Amino acid sequence: MKVVSLTSEHFREQIDHGITLVNFCKSGSECEQQLVITEELADEVKHQATIVKIDIEQETELAMEYGVKRVPTFMLFKNGYQVETLMGPQSKDVLRQTIIRHAVLGDTC
Question: Membrane-spanning regions, if any (predicted)?
Answer without folding.
Answer: none
